[in-house]
Amino acid sequence: MKAIKLFIILLLVGRCAVAQQLNIGNTLPTITINDLIKPHTPKPTTKDLYTDGALIISFWATWCMPCIKEMQLLAAEVDKYPGKLNVLSITYEDPTLIHRFLDQHPEIQNSGLHLIAGDTLFSKHFFHRALPHNVWVNQSGTIKAITGGGEVTTSNIAAFLKGSVLPMREKKEVTFDPRKPLQIPDSIPQVRSIFLKRLPGVEMSGSSLHPGRMNRPVMQRFLMYNLRILTLFWAAHQMPGGADKSYLYEVHTRDSSRFFWPGEGKAPASYHGIDRYHWGKENTYTYEFSIPKPLEDSIFLAQVRRDLEFNLHVKSSRELRPRDCYIVTYQKGRAPLKPAPSTASSVLKIEGGQLIFSGITIDYLLNSLILKTIQKDGNNRREPYLNQTGVPFLISGKVDVGTDPLLHHSREHLEACLSKAVGLQFERKEAMYPILVLRDTL
Q1: What domains does the chain contain, in order, with CATH numbers?
Q2: Helix (H), strand (E) at residue 321
Q3: pLDDT class for 17, splitting at 50, 70, 90?
Q4: Most buried residue among 53, 70, 201, 231 by CB atoms closer than 10 A?
Q5: What stretches of 53-108 adopt beta strand conformation (E)?
Q6: Could you report the per-residue pLDDT of 338-367, keeping only the tens digit for each?
């Protein structure tokens, strides 16, 4: 009997520990705000922040460029409406990283924004995967809107402070696990290929490549979701870094709006056509290709490319063009690159001030340097790497990179550490480099 009572008590405690999911129309509970970057005494509550006007709870991250632009706007708006508009800017990231970020953005640091780092509470009340994510709370504590970043404008904020809510698109995400199949089959097929337009309710976009080592010598599943045509082919051809480098692709088409949002490259305020969200509903796609057993990646991806070309009426190829790039060569240093043991798991991480890698190729390591700095580095270098190391084996090693988290996102710093520790040399010059070329077939 005691055991039953104890089980019931533990069950009730477990239920109480689960944060209530809040939606439009709910009242924001009074929550004491801890872990502020600039502490207040006494500690404020959420009620303190909306009682005299309005509160926007804004979820962001340092790697999210739209978030940073939004924070700059919100910082200016808070200073424009002192005592009436409060903004609670929340990130899951480490406080040390946030302090360094703020040192580089004094317009945010010196504003009236309330900043929380290392959040584990508010994100449980407001489910989201994609950033930015904003919750609009009026003077009575009622949640009036939940939006993405495009709705955070001076006109919407001005109307909200006057007690009205202009029409804004609700950002309502559904639970989505890219590790799971898009469709559960009745039987195990030899090949499954699913091609769809944008997944409704899934605000984020991305990919899942499964299984295989981190260098992907074999593949069994390819999933890209809510992505434009260029990005689909970029992944299918295993191009380096992200598909935002216009000098590394050519698109030959009679209708560029299939490939690019017409407002790209223009200030949003000056573009009055279709907005990016509605363009994306018609021009971003979800594609899954899977087979029962792993297959050599070159053969697997060749089928993926044929499938995408058939569905999208596009011919794709990799072609050489003269481009500035960083030639990477290898000279044995004090601690030369070591072949990974045949049983080594694939690892690439920065931990305890060390870059730790095992069971990966040189190409995978170099591509990861690009991806780590693509959002963080304000002076983001355009040039890709061209691997001329001649290293044929999977590598393992540890390289001291320091404990400053911002330097972990600097290509120059990581290159210097790799050069000193394992003898990789980086030289910028023009060379024939493979670019992605897309052409209409209709």
Answers
A1: 2-161 (3.40.30.10), 192-312 (no CATH), 324-433 (no CATH)
A2: strand 314-330
A3: very low
A4: 70
A5: 54-59, 85-90
A6: 888 878 788 889 999 999 998 888 888 888
Long-range contacts, stretch 406-413, CB < 8 angstroms, 24+ apart = 406/97, 406/100, 406/101, 406/376, 408/350, 408/372, 409/372, 409/373, 409/376, 409/377, 410/373, 410/376, 410/377, 411/369, 411/370, 411/372, 411/373, 411/377, 411/381
Q: What is the separation, in whole angstroms, between the first and last Cα of the chain?
A: 74
pLDDT tens-digit series, residues 84-126: 999 999 999 988 889 989 999 999 999 999 999 999 889 889 9
Q: What six digits make up the tokens of 243?
A: 């598909």
128 in Cβ contact with 113 (< 8 Å)? no
d(CA 6, CA 2): 6
Q: Please write the tens of the pLDDT for every residue from 41-79.
A: 688 899 999 988 999 999 999 988 889 999 999 999 999
Q: Are 423 and 389 in contact (CB under 8 A)?
A: no
**Left, alpha or beta for 179 (phi > 0: left; psi -120 to 50: alpha)?**
alpha
Burial category of 292 from C-beta neighbours within 10 Å (exposed 0-12, middle 13-18, buried 19 and up) = exposed
Structure tokens given for 290: 């899977």
Q: Which residues contact 417 (CB under 8 A, 6 or more apart)?
A: 355, 399, 400, 401, 402
Residue 7 burial class via C-beta count within 10 angstroms: exposed 0-12, middle 13-18, buried 19 and up:
exposed
Q: Report in angstroms the alpha-carbon separations of 364 from 296, 347, 353, 441.
A: 17, 11, 20, 32
